[in-house]
Design a protein that fits this description.
Layout (H helix, E strand, L loop, with lengths): L5 E2 L8 H10 L6 E5 L4 E7 L4 H7 L3 E7 L4 E7 L7 E5 L3 H16 L15 E5 L2 E9 L9 H14 L4 H13 L2 H6 L3 E5 L5 H19 L2 E2 L4 E3 L18 E3 L8 E9 L3 H12 L4 E10 L6
Parallel strand pairs: 8-14, 9-10, 9-13, 13-14
Antiparallel strand pairs: 1-6, 2-3, 2-6, 3-5, 4-5, 7-8, 11-12
Helix pairs in contact: 5-7
InterPro entries: PRTase-like (IPR029057), PRTase_dom (IPR000836)
Protein name: Ribonucleotide-diphosphate reductase subunit beta
């Protein structure tokens, strides 16, 4: 067995809050190799007796995928915290095992072979102003009817469809938290901020899409959860992409959640910006201090499809 725990980066480069976790690892059972990447992803291969979930939770890392590699080992990928480093943490049987495990992880996750059809970007791709408000988005979105869309762009479509269906709330919350936490607007407004989603068309869709997501993201950002800032009085038809219609007529607003606060207004996709504009104006009319838009994806306008 390679002697005790090995960390491939100096402890001086490890965030102070995480140092104790590395020492805790030295007492955990089982063999494991964790490769941390500078883009906030990490890969792991571990023996079945290794409690990799507990290890990752101690660092506030989120496991995206964990599968059986064979009858003795588990393999997976996840998102580290914003202070992630480029290095390895491992305790394995010998150098030959370490070399083999490295090759397995690099082939699985650093090559073109992708096990899960989701993107793991943890920085905002771009920003824009809608009705004077600063807005940020993580991915470009190409409608599925468009031809010749690259594989990476199909990944973003896959993620947003799963999110709309009420799946992958924890993954999307983790991605948003990493994107938001490193931005200057977050540092300036966090103490007075509230997270509010742009409501879906029906109560059922709204709850499935945003209830758990808002709870997880607001907890990670340590801001107020404003999921209940609006209530859908009655379901309405889907109006995404339409113009000139009142898209808030079926909503009841509860200003107690946002009066005098800086609102982080979040949605899955921004296309025309009309939904955002109407929500932003109503929130400001009812006493919000400011509104910042946060979107998972921005629809790319195509000349010819």
């Amino acid at each position: 067995m390679i002697e005790d725990l090995h960390i491939s980066v100096p402890l001086s480069e490890v965030p102070e809050a995480q140092v104790g976790n590395y020492f805790t690892l030295s007492r955990m059972p089982g063999e494991f190799l964790i490769i941390q990447k500078p883009d906030n992803t990490f890969y792991f291969l571990c023996s079945r007796e290794c409690d990799i979930v507990r290890i990752c939770e101690s660092f506030d890392w989120y496991i995206v995928s964990k599968d059986a590699f064979n009858d003795r080992l588990s393999i997976g990928i996840g998102l580290a915290d914003k202070e992630s480093i480029d290095g390895e943490v491992y305790r394995v049987q010998d150098e030959a095992t370490l070399s083999l495990w490295r090759d397995i992880l690099r082939f699985t996750f650093d090559s073109d072979f992708v096990r899960r059809f989701f993107p793991y970007n943890t920085r905002f791709k771009g920003k824009m102003r809608i009705d004077g408000a600063l807005c940020f988005y993580i991915h470009d979105y190409y409608p599925t009817r468009c031809k010749g869309i690259a594989v990476e762009d199909r990944k973003t479509s896959n993620l947003v469809f799963r999110f709309k269906e009420g799946q992958q709330a924890a993954l999307v919350a983790k991605i948003f938290s990493l994107c938001i936490a490193r931005m200057p607007f977050y540092k300036e407004k966090a103490a007075n901020a509230v997270l509010i989603p742009i409501p879906a068309a029906t109560r059922e869709r709204n709850a499935a899409r945003f209830a758990r997501f808002c709870s997880l993201l607001s907890r990670r950002l340590k801001i107020v959860d404003g999921f209940r800032a609006t209530w859908i009085r009655e379901d309405r038809e889907q109006m995404k992409g339409t113009h000139g219609l009142d898209k808030l007529s079926n909503l009841i607003f509860h200003p107690v959640y946002f009066q005098g606060r800086d609102v982080f207004l979040v949605d899955d996709i921004v296309s025309t910006g009309e939904n955002f504009t109407q929500m932003k104006r109503r929130l400001m009319q009812l006493g919000a201090n400011s509104v910042t838009g946060l979107f998972l994806e921005r629809t790319v306008k195509m000349g010819k499809e």
